[in-house]
Each structure stands twice: as structure tokens, then as C-alpha cells.
User: Fold NADP-dependent oxidoreductase from Deinococcus ruber.
Amino acid sequence: SREVQLAARPQGAPRPSDFHLTDVTLPPLESGQLLVRNLYLTVDPYMRGRMNDVKSYTPPFALNAPMTGGAVGQVVESRAEGIEAGTLVLHELGWRTAAVVDAAKVRTLPSLPGVPLSAYLGVLGMPGLTAYAGLLRVAEFKAGDAVFVSGAAGAVGSAVGQIARLKGASRVIGSAGSADKVQHLLNDLKFDAAFNYKDGPVAAQLRQAAPDGIDVYFDNVGGEHLEAAISSMNLHGRAAICGMISQYNATEPNAAPRNLAQLIGKQLTLRGFLVSPYYSMFNEFVAEVGGWIASGQLRFEETVVDGIDAMPDAFMGMLQGQNTGKMIVRLGEA
Ligand code: NDP
Assistant:
């Protein structure tokens, strides 16, 4: 198996020298284990946090050891009852081409027509559930709300905006980091308004895109975006604080938001959340979002990079916005 190890803890933006690739020999299977050939791997923003040596909700990655993360693979050999060779599985030993996995730690995947296996790492996986639970449960979205989502062309954000539209939002507004992404939001994902946050101050662009204000803000970015959203929020507005990617590479503390006093007068609710407690609604989520995908009402984009050797670049590229929709590393086909 070939795997990506963390060679050094990144200072600021990760660099190629923070990673190294190495070939390892896998141990023989013990009872209850599976040998899995990985087909699709994911790179996610939260992994940047795990590269730091700080206490967080997940422990840091160890140096000179393989990193972990979501992976879709195919069982090559099984010593577990009920799982045959050929079975498709979702598991957490990503960042490598093959793995010995405990059968108790995998989820077997159906092979659905029209749904690529990589979708289980994106729109029908952790990022999709984050969007679904964050919007509907955490922000308590209701029909008629005007919704603003940042990071709107990414894996989570593109699902948030479309779920809001399909659930009856009065207006869906998104921000993203390029003119092409803005066109994608407007033309492909049917957002009502979208802007490039690099074109000028977010507050002014948001005010223009949402002249009647917003009721819900889904925050993937933090900083200036969160400050702008607070300023545009209507009475009793709610924000789901999902991520703050503008700060993940920061070496200095962030200044914004400077307008938190508005929480009082407008009686706003800002709620941080993790997706993990919401796996209890996974089946409901897959049924509803899977239905929208099958009927063509919800679209999902992927940016696919080929080969394990390109995985560090895929990760660094995702942090810089090189992806539209989910960033996926493809190793092979089932
Ligand atoms: P994305 O697919 O959205 O990829 C990351 C995107 O972030 C890039 O494409 C880039 O797009 C954008 N970005 C990078 N730097 C900045 C910046 N300085 N300002 C604004 N945008 C920036 O990733 P995900 O959909 O997987 O994740 C989105 C967010 O959700 C992240 O903050 C992540 O940490 C969070 N998250 C939280 C979870 C939870 O349990 N709370 C679970 C999963 C994700 P652009 O070109 O637009 O700049």
C-alpha cells in the first residue's frame, strides 16, 4: 500500500514539504478484518485542524504516520462473516491506497444507478449531512426564510443552498471566490443571487444581494463573512456556525466580527455545531437528498484529482478554492 504521511506540522498554509509518500507492507488479516482496496478518498477542511498539535474535538494527526479520513473502497479479501470480497465499503482509513480495516468500522454501500461511489464522500456523505442537519436542525430553517450561505460553491455550501431552495426559501444568496463559481451558483444551482467575495467588502455585496435582509446564515467561512451576515440579519435571525475556513491557516487571531452587540437588539441566535451527533438522521437525509438527486432537482459537482501522489496537492488546492463542489481523489474504479 502507498500512503501519505504528515512530515511536518504546517505553519500557515500547508506546503508540499509537509507531506511525504511512502510504500508500506500491510499486515496479514486477523479474524474480523477486511483487506480493502481504496477507490475514492476525500480531502476535507477539518483535516487542516488535525495537522496542528493542539487539543481539539479530534486528536491531532501523528507525524510520520498515515493520516486518516473518509474512503470508499472494495473488499479484496475478507475474514469477517457476512462481508464478501467485492463488497463496497465506506471507512475511515483514507490517505492510502489500501488498508486492513476492522469489519465493525465499515459501512457497506449500495451500488445505486446514477449515483457515483464518490458521492458517499460528498453530497450523500458527511458534507451532505452537515448541510442538511445544519440548515434544518441547527439554523431551524423554515419555508419563507431568506438564506445566505458562504463557501457556497463547495461541498457543504452547494448542498445548503439547494436544500434551502427545495424547502421553500424566499431567497437564496451565496458567496464564493471566483466569477466562474458565481455563474455556477446562479445558472446551475439556481441561487437567486451570488457574489464573489474577492470583488469588494462582503457587507456591501451582501446588502445588495439581499436588500430585504436575511433570516438564516450558514457560515462556512467566518471573519468578515460572519460580520457581514450579522449586519444583514433580520429580527430573530439564526446562524448555523459550521466552519471558519478563512481562519484555518491563520497564524494571528482574527479581528471580525466586531458587531456582536447586534445580537441583542435583533435577538439573533448563533449556534456552532458538529455533524457527528446528527448521524441519527442519516437515513432520513439519504432518502430526501437521494430523492432530489434521482429526480434531477439537486445537482452536485465534483473536482476529481487522480492518484495517491496527487493527494497533498488536492488537499492544498481545496484550501485555496481550486474545487467546485466536492474535492475527490480517485484511485480506481470498482
Ligand atoms: P469546500 O468544498 O467548501 O472547500 C473549501 C472551500 O473554502 C474552497 O473551495 C474555497 O472556495 C473556500 N475558501 C478557502 N479559503 C477561504 C477564505 N479565506 N475565505 C472564504 N472562502 C475560502 O469544503 P467543505 O464543503 O468540505 O467544508 C466547508 C466548511 O464546512 C468548512 O469550513 C469546514 O470546516 C466546514 N465543515 C464543518 C463540519 C462540522 O461538523 N461542523 C463538517 C464538514 C465541514 P472559494 O473559491 O469560494 O474561496
Summary: Residues 126-138 form the longest helix (13 residues). Residues 44-46, 127, 130, 151, 153-157, 176-178, 181, 220-221, 242-243, 245-246, 273-275, 318-319, 321, 323, 326 surround NDP (CB under 6 Å). Residues 74 and 88 are 5 Å apart (CA to CA). The first strand starts at residue 2 and ends at 6.
